[in-house]
Amino acid sequence: MITKTLALLLTLAVARPCASQTPQTRLWDASISGDTTALAGALKDGARIDSLDRRTSQNGRRALNWAAINNRAGAIRFLLAHGALIEATNLTGFTALHHAAEYGSVDAARVLLAAGADPKHTNMEGVTPLARARQEGHLDVAELLEAAERGVRPKN
């Protein structure tokens, strides 16, 4: 738990925009903060929506993963509407839904499932988002994922 708290604090420190940032780093940081205006600006300035951010994790995070980790439902909707691939993975096979499950991001999980994210997608170790939510004790996310595995998707 301390490691996740430290990771989130590090994430917030990185998420502060500054004038010297590239469009790509602005996209990732806007995904972390949920700033859809900044997301639009970064895309307009040439950021690639599905590029892999390895600044704080060797496994990488895509913009959609960052938005899911930080429970940014509006940013998830924006990214999906602008072409983010819902099943894109990081280097260990985690999708945005895996990250929502891992961090207990209920709103993010709801939006991803309503948009068609596959609740049965396994990472490189064969772990589903549901298994990840259970491992972390996020029972509210686990309930959503259990329903989705039975074919019941939340409304967006």
CATH homologous superfamily classification: Ankyrin repeat-containing domain
Kindly give the count of domains: 1
pLDDT under 50 segments (min length 5)? none
Helix content: 40-55%
**What's the CATH topology name?**
Serine Threonine Protein Phosphatase 5, Tetratricopeptide repeat
Query: How does the overall form come out from the CA principal axes?
Result: globular
CATH architecture, by name, is Alpha Horseshoe
Mean pLDDT: 91
Count, helices: 9
- Number of DSSP-assigned strands: 0
Output the CATH class name.
Mainly Alpha
Write structural notes for this entry.
The chain has one domain (2-14, 21-149): Serine Threonine Protein Phosphatase 5, Tetratricopeptide repeat (Alpha Horseshoe), CATH 1.25.40. The longest helix has 13 residues, at 2-14. Helices cover 54% and strands 0% of the residues. Helix 2 (23-33) runs parallel beside helix 4, helix 6 runs parallel beside helix 8 and helix 8 (129-136) packs antiparallel against helix 9. With 156 residues, the chain is an all-alpha fold.
